[in-house]
Write a structure and sequence with these properties.
Blueprint: E1 8-11, H1 24-36, E2 40-43, H2 55-67, E3 74-78, H3 83-96, E4 100-104, H4 113-124, E5 131-135, H5 137-140, H6 147-155, E6 159-164, H7 169-178, E7 183-186, H8 192-197, E8 202-205, H9 212-223, H10 234-239, H11 248-256, H12 276-296
Parallel strand pairs: 1-2, 1-8, 2-3, 3-4, 4-5, 5-6, 6-7, 7-8
Helix pairs in contact: 2-3, 4-6, 11-12
Length: 298
């Protein structure tokens, strides 16, 4: 069974210019921040508005990121509900030579256990690239059945883990029960400590867009079991990034930090969904996280 190398992967935003086109200059800046922090990268996930990009844009983002020759792994999000479109993107990602793929439960259709198994089997059968399965029922409308990863890992050697973003520690336990040999990553920033205590090995993070070194430090502390150095306000701070639809708050905070030029998002997302109170909470969270990071050393 193939393994992922890094304990933290950032679900990257896709920065955009005022006209909605991809801002590749800002994208490189953000990717270099991840490289400096020794954090893996995930492009074209839901945080990256992957479903709002046309195929040509997706391919360009993959190629652009690969050609930067980052010294951290590159994972690509494969999502949607059109099987052939996803197969085509997997083939392109393989052609470019990415390090891993994130395969999400199909959207909208709400397939049952057998439909999920057959869907993932179709995708896994055309690639040898390491693949992480993604359970995020709040976005897909259906839970990944706990038995499906186990069955898939018996059939395909490139299944190496699960990103579990149900928001439930109890559901996380069920996945671990059925697939004790798979690597499980928390897909919820605020639950990383609870998931590690139940056998999780890392985090696929939204927060590391704005706090790459800080998030890597926090996860390292948790994995080392050194809970005396934990940041007590981490869950509250991370949740500030979800006071409006992701990635709206993250883009706003990144602009405050001077890391991106524009906060542009594509419809149906809207910057107007972030309230003034939500923006103030973001700035306070940023202050607290940075204060903690200075205190623990880096």
């Amino acid at each position: 069974m193939k393994k992922l190398e890094f304990p933290v992967y950032t679900a990257m935003i896709t920065p955009m210019n005022e006209d909605g086109s991809v801002d590749y200059e800002s994208l490189e800046y953000l990717l270099r921040k991840q490289e400096q922090a020794k954090v893996g990268t995930l492009v074209l996930g839901s945080t990256g508005e992957g479903l709002n990009l046309i195929d040509e844009e997706k391919r360009t983002v993959i190629k652009f990121t690969k050609e930067l020759k980052l010294e951290v792994p590159l994972m690509v999000g494969i999502g949607g509900h059109n099987l052939e479109a996803q197969k085509n993107l997997i083939r392109y990602a393989d052609e470019v030579g990415v390090d891993a793929l994130l395969l999400v439960t199909p959207l909208y259709a709400k397939p049952g256990k057998e439909g999920q198994f057959e869907w993932f089997s179709e995708l896994l059968s055309i690639t040898e690239t390491p693949c992480m399965l993604y359970n995020v029922p709040s976005r897909t409308g259906v839970k990944l059945h706990p038995e499906v990863p186990a069955r898939l890992s018996e059939k395909f050697s490139n299944v190496m883990g699960v990103k579990e973003a149900s928001g439930s520690v109890e559901e996380f336990k069920q996945f671990r029960k059925h697939s004790p040999d798979l690597d499980f990553y928390s897909g919820d920033d605020g639950l990383i400590e609870a998931f590690v205590k139940e056998g999780g090995v890392g985090l696929v993070s939204v927060a590391s867009n704005v706090w790459p070194a800080q998030t890597r430090k926090l996860v390292d502390v948790i994995l080392d079991g050194d809970f005396n150095d934990l940041f007590g306000d981490w869950e509250e701070s991370a949740n500030a990034l979800f006071s409006a639809s992701n990635p709206v708050p993250t883009k706003v905070l990144l602009q405050h930090k001077g890391w991106i030029t524009n906060t542009t998002v594509r419809l149906p997302l809207s910057l107007n969904d972030l309230t003034a109170e939500g923006e103030e909470a973001l700035l306070e969270a940023d202050r607290k996280v940075n204060e903690w990071f200075k205190g623990v050393g880096n």
